[in-house]
Amino acid sequence: MRTLKIIARFYRGIFLANFFVTIVSAYAIAFHRDQANKLIGTFFWGKIVTLCLMIYFAFVAKKKELYYYQNLGISKQRLAVTVWLVDFSLWLILIIIAYRR
Length: 101
Prior knowledge:
Blueprint: H1 2-31, H2 36-61, H3 66-71, H4 76-100
Helix pairs in contact: 1-2, 1-4, 2-4
């Protein structure tokens, strides 16, 4: 539980930008329902690229802050994988909901 709180502290810094991409993707899928099959692939790769870039830039911007997480026993890889999985899962859930409506 403690580890999740620490990872959530890191994730707060990049949440809004990633959530904006998620909302735009879900809205576009819901709005262009007739072309959704063509758009999903584009949004899928767009989400992966933007998420990787956000994590990279967060690591660059918070270079000194990463020592805080490492001192608490959380590696950069663990931060990146956990943030990636949580954010991508949120994106996937919202896309499925938008696609079914």
